[in-house]
Specification:
This protein is an alpha/beta fold. The chain is built from 31 helices and 28 strands.
Length: 884
């Protein structure tokens, strides 16, 4: 190891709002040195390396970073890469559909005559992999590799670019023992080449096996730098947690009771190829006992737990009993109902709905027991969440804090809390301490003691032998999908570390909602100002009344699109469906003399059935929603033309006495409009004050009196302004009343019912939602069924507003609906969106179309303008998504 300092951080201070993540940290890295960073989750390790990588740019922190003795002002990660700093983050940044070789050279492909030289790519890839001691075919698809192999490919890619400094953030978390040995050998090889390495790990045995020096962080402050050869794990832990830990695996004396889980001769076929993956599995787990499941990676440990929850494989022989009753679990929902719960090894993929808050995640699996009628009882929900937070000592700023902003240990405890709230008899823990710090580990161990002391049974899978030996009362060893033996708890002192609970939570997510809302408001004002300047009639009472009808039609369909987008789906057939539904009703009423209410009911029922069928194909057969609904677009458009026989079907016959035309031609009398406005304002104020009081009782942040008054005053004024303007023409349009009713119903549905929570959960993390017992398929089918009813309603309104059913009715309305949702903050990836945001977005889209019509803009130009708005909305969604 050289004495030359290649990288130095001097007195670094980094703040996120009122939270100080780093408080004057200094750090030095020498050439050819492996320097370990140790600390609990939230201690500041990730923040420090993000500064070194340029993720937090120069100017966003105090202090100085120097590379080779020169001050470095990294403005981006690209600047850090140019300076020779490569960072391997915990979240892999590989492209699963590309080969290993393509991943290694992406962005720097060797070329021959302007084309990629594939022979050179794979030849150099083979050399790079061999140089790193990795045995992989460079032509294999990365998505076909295991997580551990993907981690090694990520490291090889960084090494292939010959960095001066390599930062490894928890590089062994997902690796098997032989892969860990390969990685540590690679680090030693790099050290011999004078490459400096920063090594971050919660596994102190690995730290002492590879590190030259160790710097300890606690609560954003450095607790000293020690030579690894001159200290021990006990001293490192003391500096990390502020005290010594005497008992690394606190385990009470077990008092096993009755058998709660029994497997007898269980054979399971793998879902992919139908081969026998688990054979002859037999064991029992008793009340008050921890049953450990050991074995190498690939032995079938995780697959066994997933099978018990109904998530993996098909049982072809044997029985499973829980508390003496046959366990019939075709899915996690049924397993949870019978007293079985699982905490998975991959909390980000299967355990958390990251954009949502702590309360949402904790209560997700128990919503059915928290209902009052059709609605979620918020008092009970928050009460249970607060109890879990206090019991597990989850460190949060608020129960509404997105779980994605919590430290790893606190995230793990949220997943544990959700499963505990289901009151399971048997709790399956798959690698419960993976990726969390020593303090959080100890709290998980203490929780295991409390649960077994209360008579529950724990089935524990762990790759850490010391943890398995230290916590288990009995251990079942698996080997290639079969039981290799069952052993009583072994005595010993496994080398591992534990400590107190997590330190400070992760950096707070930047709130981008204000930026979006301000942008929307500015855009709306600009649109109105422009059209009023070009066409003064834009602000006339007559035109604003017409605009309100156009808004109602666009917004109703957009609210249906919101329901579909929340679970991460889409409906490109909506516009064609609007035209078809309106045509069916019009033909029945005006060509066949069917009473309007009957015709509208027939068309609505047909739409619900058809959209439910599409939802079933999407949810069950896994046909991509984009393809399924694109096909629907073509089919419905063709059927529309067939139904109307390429003619025009007027809907104005019968005038004000016809129920069909009344959807957009009827206006409430002036007095009725004011009464309706008064009722609406009263409801808004009552709802807001109730929510304010509840938030205060829950301990959530609340607005001060002036801001609360402003938030109530502005909507109330807008409601009465709409009534005054529309009364200046003919009165409040019935279409606007329909929009209000639909908006209230959808808002209640998505915010206050289990179905609505399920929509957000599926869109936020479908796999985690499934593990949590959410009926994913039924929820998606239900979303499309609701979309069908809204498509039909929109079809009636749009056809009535057009005055006739023609071949152009509904054309491109699905794109207007998507644009309205995205402008209003709904994510195309799912999991995020609100009814008020959609209404605001629909107002922007309706204003654009209305203004362009007044200006006699050509249809071609309208299409171009709508396309630009949609593209900008999607860009804004993606941009804000990156910032979260």
């Amino acid at each position: 190891m050289s004495e030359r300092i290649v990288l130095a951080a001097r007195a670094i201070v980094k703040r996120f709002g009122a939270v100080t993540a780093l408080g004057g940290v200094s750090f030095e890295l020498r050439a050819g040195e492996v320097h370990a960073l140790c600390g609990e989750n939230g201690a500041g390790k990730s923040t420090l390396i993000k500064l070194l990588a340029g993720v937090h740019p120069h100017g966003s922190y105090e202090g100085e970073i120097r590379v080779d003795g020169k001050t470095a002002g990294f403005r981006s990660t690209r600047d850090a890469e140019r300076a020779g700093i490569a960072i391997i983050h915990q979240e892999l940044a590989l492209f699963p559909d590309m080969s290993v070789g393509e991943n290694l050279f992406l962005g720097a492909f060797p070329r021959r005559r302007g084309r990629i030289d594939w022979d050179c790519v794979y030849a150099r890839s083979a050399v790079t992999l061999a140089d790193c001691g990795i045995r992989l075919d460079p032509a294999v698809r990365v998505g076909d590799l295991g997580v551990g192999q993907q981690q090694l490919v990520e490291i090889a890619r960084a090494v292939g670019r010959k960095p001066k400094v390599l930062v490894l953030d928890e590089p062994t978390a997902a690796l098997a023992r032989h892969e860990i040995d390969t990685l540590l050998d690679l680090v030693r090889r790099l050290r011999s080449r004078d490459v400096a390495c920063v090594f971050i790990s919660h596994k102190l045995d690995e730290v002492f096996a590879i590190a030259d020096r160790i710097t300890v962080l606690r609560d954003g402050c450095a607790q000293g730098t020690l030579n690894a050869a001159e200290t021990d794990a006990g001293e490192i832990i003391r500096r990390m947690v502020g005290r010594r830990i005497e008992d690394h695996y606190p385990r009470r004396q077990p008092t096993p009771g009755r058998t709660l889980l029994a497997l007898r001769g269980v054979d399971v076929k793998a879902p992919a190829d139908g081969t026998l993956s688990l054979g002859g599995i037999e064991f029992e787990a008793r009340a008050g006992e921890v049953l450990g499941i050991g074995g190498l990676m690939g032995a079938g440990r995780t697959e066994l737990l997933l099978h018990l929850m109904g998530l993996w494989g098909t049982r072809i022989a044997g029985t499973v009993e829980i508390d003496g009753r046959p366990l019939v679990a075709r899915n996690p929902r049924e397993a949870l109902a019978q007293g079985l719960a699982l905490v998975t090894e991959d909390r980000k993929r299967f355990g958390l709905v990251s954009p949502q808050g702590v309360t949402f995640n904790v209560s997700l699996s128990s919503l059915r027991r928290m209902r009052r009628g059709l609605f979620v009882d918020r008092d009970r929900e928050v009460g249970h969440a607060k109890a879990i937070v206090e019991e597990l000592r989850i460190k949060v700023q608020s129960l509404e804090q997105p779980v994605g902003t919590l430290s790893g240990g606190n995230q793990q405890k949220v997943v544990l809390g959700r499963m505990l709230l289901t009151q399971p008899q048997v709790l399956l823990l798959d690698e419960p301490t993976r990726g969390i710090d020593v303090g959080a580990k100890l709290e998980v161990y203490e929780l295991i003691n409390r649960l077994t002391g209360a008579g529950q049974s724990i089935v524990l899978v762990s790759s850490e032998l010391g943890e398995l030996l230290g916590l288990s009362d009995r251990i079942v060893m698996l080997c290639e999908g079969r039981v290799g033996g069952t052993f009583d708890r072994a005595a010993g002192d496994p080398a591992a570390a534990a400590g107190r609970r997590d330190g400070a939570t992760g950096a707070r997510r930047m709130n981008r909602l204000a930026t979006r809302e301000l942008s929307m408001l500015i855009a709306l004002v600009a649109i109105w100002a422009f059209f009023a300047w070009q066409e003064p009639v834009f602000l006339s009472a007559r035109n604003l009344s017409l605009l309100s009808v156009e808004l109602a039609v666009t917004a109703v369909l957009a609210l249906g699109m919101l329901v579909v987008l929340l679970p991460g789906q889409i409906d490109l057939s909506a516009g064609s469906g609007v035209g078809l539904a309106g045509a069916v009703a019009a033909v029945l009423v005006f060509w066949h003399d069917v009473p309007a209410p009957v015709a509208l009911s027939i068309a609505t029922l047909g739409a619900v059935v058809v959209w439910s069928a599409m939802g079933a194909l999407i949810a069950i057969e896994r046909i991509p929603a984009f393809i399924m609904t694109l096909g629907g677009l073509l089919v419905f458009r063709g059927l529309h033309w067939l139904v109307i026989e390429n003619q025009t079907v007027p809907v104005v016959e019968g005038g004000s006495t016809n129920a069909y035309s009344l959807l957009t031609t009827y206006y409430l009398p002036d007095v009725a409009g004011y009464v309706l406005a008064g009722l609406a304002v009263t409801a808004i104020v009552a709802s807001a004050l109730t929510a304010w009081k509840r938030r205060q009782s829950y301990g959530f942040p609340v607005d001060d009196g002036e801001l609360t008054f402003l938030k109530l005053f502005v909507p109330a004024q807008l409601v009465f302004l709409v009534v005054i303007v529309t009364n200046g023409y003919r009165g409040v349009p019935i279409a606007l009343v329909i929009l209000g009713l639909v908006a209230v119903l959808v808002h209640q549905l998505v915010t206050n019912t289990p179905f609505g929570r399920y929509l957000y959960a599926i869109g936020g993390n479908e796999e985690a939602a499934a593990v949590s017992g959410v009926p994913v398929r039924n929820t998606i089918i239900g979303a499309y069924a609701l979309m069908g009813s809204i498509v039909a309603l929109t079809g009636f309104m749009q056809t009535a507003y057009s005055g006739a059913s023609t071949s152009t009715v509904g054309s491109l309305m699905e794109l207007d609906a998507v644009a309205a949702c995205v402008i209003g903050g709904t994510s195309l990836r799912g999991g995020r969106g609100t009814v008020p945001g959609v209404l605001f977005g629909a107002l922007i889209m309706a204003s654009l179309l209305n203004g362009m019509t007044l200006m006699a803009v050509s249809p071609e130009a309208k299409y171009i303008a709508r396309g630009i708005v949609l593209a900008l909305a999607v860009w804004l969604d993606l941009r804000l998504g990156k910032d979260r």
